[in-house]
Specification:
Elements lengths: L1 E3 L13 E10 L4 H10 L4 E8 L6 E10 L6 H15 L3 E5 L7 E7 L4 H11 L5 E8 L8 H8 L4 E3 L9 H7 L5 E4 L8 H7 L3 E5 L11 H8 L3 E8 L9 E8 L6 H24 L3 E4 L3 E4 L1
Parallel strand pairs: 6-7, 6-9, 7-8, 9-10
Antiparallel strand pairs: 1-3, 2-4, 2-5, 3-4, 10-11, 11-12, 13-14
Helix pairs in contact: 1-2, 3-8, 7-8
InterPro entries: ACT-like_dom_sf, Formyl_transf_N, Formyl_transf_N_sf, PurU, PurU_ACT
Protein name: Formyl transferase N-terminal domain-containing protein
GO molecular function, one term: formyltetrahydrofolate deformylase activity
C-alpha cells in the first residue's frame, strides 16, 4: 500500500477552499494516479493525500484521495462530471466523490435490542458532532420505559423510535424495510436478530453490525462466555458488514484488550462492552469518510 503524506480528515483547509474525498476501484493500469492528479490540478485543486493498494495476486487498483479545491473555480456538478469521466476512462468498479462540508450527511437507521450501551454511545457521539450522520430513526424489538435514558434522549432530539416486537416466526422485516426506506445505510447496535437474505437483497445497501467478540472466533451468542471458557488472553469486538451468514461478513474494524487469569466473566463483559462502543463508532466514521472498499469476496481495504 502506498501512502503519500497522509493527513487526518480534519487537516486545515485553506480559506475559501473545500475538502474533497475520492474513492476509486478499477482494473490496475499504468497512469491512474497521474490522471487523477491531472484531473484535480487542471481545476486548480491540490492533493493532500493519496492511499493506494494493488494486491499481489490480482490486477485491481484501490485508491482513496483527499484534495482541496476552490468551489468557485470547480463547482460541485462539474467536479462530479470530471470524476465520472475518470471512471469511464479506467472502467471503474467503484467511484465515489464526497465533499463533506456541502454534501448531505449520510442518513442512517439504528437497530438495537435490549442492551443500550452501543446505541447510547452512538447517540452521544452524534450529539457532539463526532459522527457525520443524520439519525433517521431508531428501531428496537425490545420496548423501553418512557423514562429510559435512551428514550429521553430520542424525545429531546425528536428522533423517531419504533418498537417492533419479534418472534421466531415473524421478524417484522417488511415493516423494518418500510421504516428504513431512503436511508444510506443501516447500523445494528447490538440488534440480536439475524437478517434474512431476502431482507438484505430488498434493502440493497450496506448494513454495519457490531459483534461482541473477536471474529472469526466466538461467533453467535455469548461470545464473552465462549472466550472466558476458552481461557483467551485477548478479547475483542468486531464491526463488519452484514451478510446472510451469521457473523461472517467482511470485517471493517476490530479492537482488542488484554485479559488474564485474574479476570472474571463479568470483567470480560465489561471490557467487551467498552470495546464494542469504540469499534462500532470507528467503523461508522471510516465508512462515512470513504475509507472502506470491498476486497475480494469477504475482505475489505480500509485506508
Amino acid at each position: 500500500m502506498l501512502s503519500l503524506a497522509r493527513r487526518p480528515l480534519s487537516a486545515a483547509v485553506p480559506a475559501g477552499n473545500l475538502l474533497g474525498i475520492h474513492l476509486f476501484q478499477c482494473p490496475d493500469a499504468v497512469g491512474i494516479v497521474a490522471k487523477l492528479s491531472e484531473c484535480i490540478a487542471s481545476r486548480g485543486g491540490n492533493i493532500h493525500s493519496v492511499d493506494v493498494f494493488v494486491p499481489d495476486d490480482a490486477p485491481v487498483f484501490y485508491a482513496r484521495s483527499e484534495f482541496t479545491y476552490n468551489p468557485r473555480l470547480w463547482p460541485r456538478d462539474m467536479l462530479r462530471t470530471d470524476f465520472l469521466h475518470l471512471s469511464d476512462c479506467f472502467n471503474a468498479q467503484k467511484s465515489t466523490v464526497r465533499v463533506p462540508d456541502i454534501d448531505p450527511k449520510y442518513k442512517i437507521a439504528v437497530l438495537a435490542s435490549k442492551q443500550d450501551h452501543c446505541l447510547f454511545d452512538l447517540l452521544h457521539r452524534w450529539q457532539e458532532g463526532r459522527l457525520p450522520v443524520d439519525i433517521h430513526c431508531v428501531i428496537s424489538n425490545h420496548d423501553r420505559p418512557v423514562d429510559n435514558h435512551v428514550m429521553r434522549f430520542l424525545q429531546r432530539h425528536e428522533i423517531p423510535y419504533h418498537y417492533l416486537p419479534t418472534t421466531s416466526g415473524n421478524k417484522r422485516e417488511k415493516e423494518i424495510l418500510e421504516l428504513i426506506e431512503g436511508t444510506d445505510f443501516v447500523v445494528l447496535a447490538r440488534y440480536m436478530q439475524v437478517m434474512s437474505e431476502s431482507f438484505l437483497k430488498s434493502y440493497g445497501k450496506d448494513i454495519i453490525n457490531i459483534h461482541h467478540g473477536l471474529l472469526p472466533s466466538f461467533k453467535g451468542g455469548s461470545p464473552s462466555r465462549q472466550a472466558f471458557n476458552a481461557g483467551v488472553k485477548l478479547i475483542g469486538a468486531t464491526s463488519h458488514f452484514v451478510t446472510p451468514e451469521l457473523d461472517a461478513g467482511p470485517i471493517i474494524e476490530q479492537m482488542v484488550e488484554r485479559v488474564s487469569h485474574r479476570d472474571t466473566l463479568h470483567s470480560f463483559v465489561v471490557k467487551s462492552e467498552n470495546l464494542e462502543k469504540q469499534c462500532l463508532a470507528e467503523a461508522i466514521k471510516s465508512y462515512c469518510e470513504l475509507r472502506v472498499l470491498p476486497y475480494e469476496v469477504m475482505k475489505t481495504v480500509v485506508f
